[in-house]
Amino acid sequence: MNRLTFVCTGNTCRSVMAEHIMRKKLRSLGRELLEVTSAGIAAHSGFSNIEALFDVLADNGIKYSGNYPRQLDMEVMEEADLILAMTESHLIFIKELFPDFPDKVRLLSDYAYGEKVDVPDPFGGGTEVYSMTFEILERYIDYVLKRLNL
After folding, report:
1. How far apart are CA 65 and CA 106, in angstroms?
2. How many domains is the chain built from?
3. Residues designated catalytic
4. Residue 3 — φ and ψ, nearest 5°?
5. What is the mean pLDDT of the chain?
6. What's 70-128 look like in SS3?
């Protein structure tokens, strides 16, 4: 596997957090050959300046980087080896919009440990809400790393 992409709605909260968590964990394992990206099914420019997101990432030793948000498109679908969706509705939407890639799109929680649970959207919440989402994502990503033997 060369590229893993996390997907949420706007690519401003959950998928961005997941991308940064995964990158940090891969660095700590010395496994930076896996490229990690993120995208949104309804990404709009101008919604990437979310102070609570920056605070939670910084509190966990992660520096926010990148040009967000990025729209999920054919290029992203073709380049990714595995696409992990944050919710069941994201999963369904992606599979309907890109029917040629059914085997590379999975629900994050299901891929992580076989349970279909949506990752809650912290958008509009404060730092406490973002912290809870961060903890959920970190737990799922630990399982994803085990599943990928990393």
Report:
1. 25
2. 1
3. 8, 14, 121
4. -140, 130
5. 93
6. CECCHHHHHHCCEEEECCHHHHHHHHHHCCCCHHHEEEHHHHHHCCCCCCCCCCCCCHH
Query: Would you say 6 and 33 are in contact if contact means Cβ atoms under 8 Å apart?
Result: no
Q: Please, are residues 84 and 107 in contact by the beta-carbon 8 Å criterion?
A: yes
Please tell me the pTM assigned to this model.
Answer: 0.95
How far apart, in Å, are the Cα atoms of 42 and each of 5, 30, 134, 140? 15, 33, 21, 23
In which domain, by residue range, is 109 found?
3-147
> Quick one: how far is CA 87 from the chain centroid?
11
**What per-residue confidence (pLDDT) applies to 50?**
81
Instruction: Give the CATH number of the domain where residue 35 resides.
Output: 3.40.50.2300
